[in-house]
């Protein structure tokens, strides 16, 4: 009799699990179809490509690695020019097995979608682990999966889906270990925290959040902290060795060029109090505000729900001595961008569709759903079922409407981004390949598509893959002036630049203009394109829009005496 009862219980449990997986599969299929719709709309506007020039940088590194030229941008010239070497290495097999450039682009996007799907599966199990209810878990999966910023990122050709997935995995495993600290899980977490830096260096903040959550708040044994720090440090040291071996600095060139001058490290080393105050009192709150504005553009309800979720988690953490929720989700959802603003600000938190804070957008979206779920669970005890269901219906209606508005904008914006890069950088690369000698040296301010399509050796006027030029930036205390004198000294064969960026280099006494590429609807390069937003009552999206820029790319030849 007992065996029969156990069999019935197992059967019910199995059916429940199957239904749960089926519902999750439907959400995943919907998100995949949504991502494919981005690609289909793009194909009606332009040829396969990427929404920024930077993905082509990863492709160029991957191509050279695949060809046996090492971690180089110009073949056999090793350089630490990739901020996300783990993503770069993942693109190498694409160049081994896929022969044509359009097919490589498509396969790169498929890889991004696949990793994003893995991320969504983790979101589901993470939310289910917290709530023990499949419905909020499914809604959290849907919310993250239809977040327009993350949809853009999944097929951007960038490392975005990779570091978002790693972040969610770390948050999930950390939550599971809060009340069940298995040694093996702690070791896995330590390794993942270290590896996440190879996907995006800002992910080092996750290690800080992990330490605070586990060893400051939860008072875990110091012995555990030592082993965690040792494993993480070993992986971090390998990262430093990797960069130093390639470029002579423990940091990648991207940090040295883009962020070092304004960084917290520079402020502390130079003991510049004014700089330090600027970071603390201007950039930190600015980055927090920019993050909230960016989250608002995906769905205003995300902002409200994330605050509700954070308040509830903090209150539960203070109340309960067992079954305590992890604070790491709150830290990631609210402190990630402000700390980037404090430590290493660059332009803004929402720059390039928030490409540097995509994991924060994902965690805040998840936290938002949890916040509303917990709120309605509390209201259940105080309100009648009918008005509560009406409230829930209105909330879901607003959420879906906002999602549709954001998606309609983003699908068009993504295609516009790809077309902009194709019409400017890709065209320039193809022109260089067709009309210049094979051994020509090209100085450029956008190194991605031009290098990839032209197959010419490149001098990077911004310094990302030409670290030698950084000395000129420092010498003249100005990147553009430094680039000008570097070009005059090195005398490359050709220049490919935005004339507005380098007015000195457009001097026709020094250079001959060979070709001009003009595009009047540019939304992806030369400028910072951050969407403007209009809303009703601060909770319903009305319109998102971006003003395009008329851009010219000049191809010039150096007049050698």
Draw up the topology in text.
Blueprint (H helix, E strand, L loop, with lengths): L1 H44 L8 H13 L18 H6 L1 H6 L3 H31 L2 H12 L2 H7 L5 H19 L4 H17 L4 H14 L4 H26 L5 H7 L4 H6 L3 H26 L1 H20 L8 H7 L1 H8 L7 H4 L3 H23 L4 H51 L5 E4 L3 H7 L2 E4 L9 H7 L2 H12 L3 E4 L13 E12 L9 E5 L3 E6 L3 E10 L3
Keywords: Membrane, Transmembrane, Transmembrane helix
Organism: candidate division WOR-3 bacterium
Protein name: Glycosyltransferase RgtA/B/C/D-like domain-containing protein
Keywords, separated by commas or semicolons:
5-stranded mixed beta sheet; transmembrane helix; alpha/beta; membrane; 8% strand; two-stranded antiparallel ribbon; 7 strands; Glycosyltransferase RgtA/B/C/D-like domain-containing protein
Spatial strand arrangement across the major sheet = 2-1-3-7-4
Q: Number of DSSP helices?
A: 23
Number of strands: 7
Largest sheet: 5 strands, mixed
Order of helix and strand elements from N to C terminus: HHHHHHHHHHHHHHHHHHHHEHEHHEEEEE
Q: Which structural class do you get from the secondary structure elements?
A: alpha/beta
Whole-number tally of structural domains: 2
Q: Using the CA coordinates, give the radius of gyration.
A: 25 Å
End-to-end Cα distance = 100 Å
Give the helix level as a range of percent.
55-70%
How much beta, percentage-wise?
5-15%
Q: Which word captures the global form? A: globular
| Average pLDDT level | 93
Low-confidence stretches: none
């Amino acid at each position: 009799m007992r065996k029969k009862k156990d069999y019935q219980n197992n059967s019910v449990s199995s059916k429940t699990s199957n239904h749960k997986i089926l519902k999750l599969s439907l959400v995943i299929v919907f998100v995949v179809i949504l991502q494919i719709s981005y690609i289909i709309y793009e194909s009606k506007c332009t040829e396969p490509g990427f929404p920024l020039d930077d993905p082509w940088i990863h492709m160029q590194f991957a191509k050279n690695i695949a060809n046996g030229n090492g971690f180089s941008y110009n073949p056999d010239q090793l350089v630490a020019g990739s901020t996300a070497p783990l993503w770069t290495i993942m693109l190498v097999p694409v160049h081994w097995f896929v022969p044509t450039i359009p097919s490589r682009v498509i396969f790169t996007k498929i890889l991004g979608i696949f990793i994003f799907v893995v991320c969504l599966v983790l979101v589901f199990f993470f939310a289910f682990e917290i709530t023990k209810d499949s419905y909020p878990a499914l809604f959290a999966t849907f919310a993250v999966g239809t977040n327009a910023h993350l949809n853009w990122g999944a097929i951007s050709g960038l490392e975005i889906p990779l570091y978002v997935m790693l972040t969610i995995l770390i948050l999930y495993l950390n939550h599971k270990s809060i009340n069940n600290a298995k040694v093996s899980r702690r070791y896995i977490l330590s390794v993942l925290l270290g590896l996440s830096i190879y996907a995006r260096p800002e992910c080092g903040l996750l290690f800080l959040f992990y330490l605070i959550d586990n060893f400051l708040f939860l008072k875990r044994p110091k012995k555990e902290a030592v082993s965690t720090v040792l494993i993480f440090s070993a992986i971090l040291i390998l990262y430093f060795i990797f960069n130093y071996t390639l470029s002579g600095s423990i940091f990648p060139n991207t940090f040295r060029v883009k962020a070092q001058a304004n960084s917290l490290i520079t402020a502390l080393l130079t003991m510049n109090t004014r700089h330090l105050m600027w970071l603390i009192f201007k950039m930190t709150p600015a980055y927090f505000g920019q993050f909230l504005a960016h989250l608002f553009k995906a769905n205003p309800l995300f902002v409200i729900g994330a605050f509700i979720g954070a308040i509830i988690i903090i209150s539960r953490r203070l109340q309960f001595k067992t079954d305590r929720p992890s604070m790491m989700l709150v830290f990631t959802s609210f402190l990630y961008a402000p700390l980037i603003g404090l430590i290493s600000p660059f332009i803004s938190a929402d720059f390039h569709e928030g490409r540097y804070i995509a994991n924060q957008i994902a965690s805040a979206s998840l936290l938002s759903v949890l916040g509303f779920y917990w709120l309605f669970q509390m209201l259940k005890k105080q309100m009648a079922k009918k008005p509560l269901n009406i409230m829930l219906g209105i909330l879901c209606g607003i959420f879906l409407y906002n999602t549709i508005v954001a998606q309609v904008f983003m699908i068009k914006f993504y295609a516009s981004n790809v077309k902009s890069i194709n019409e400017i950088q890709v065209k320039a690369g193809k022109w260089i390949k067709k009309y210049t000698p094979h051994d020509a040296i090209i100085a450029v301010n956008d190194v991605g598509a031009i290098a990839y399509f032209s197959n010419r050796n490149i001098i990077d006027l911004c310094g990302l893959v030409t670290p030698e030029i950084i000395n000129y930036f420092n010498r003249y205390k100005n990147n553009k002036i430094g680039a000008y004198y570097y070009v005059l000294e090195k005398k490359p064969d050709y220049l490919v630049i935005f004339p507005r960026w380098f007015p000195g280099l457009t001097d026709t006494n020094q250079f001959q203009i060979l070709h001009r590429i003009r595009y009047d609807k540019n939304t992806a390069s030369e400028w910072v394109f951050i969407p403007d937003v209009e809303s009703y009552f601060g909770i319903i999206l009305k319109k998102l829009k971006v003003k395009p820029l008329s851009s010219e790319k000049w191809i010039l030849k150096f007049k050698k005496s």
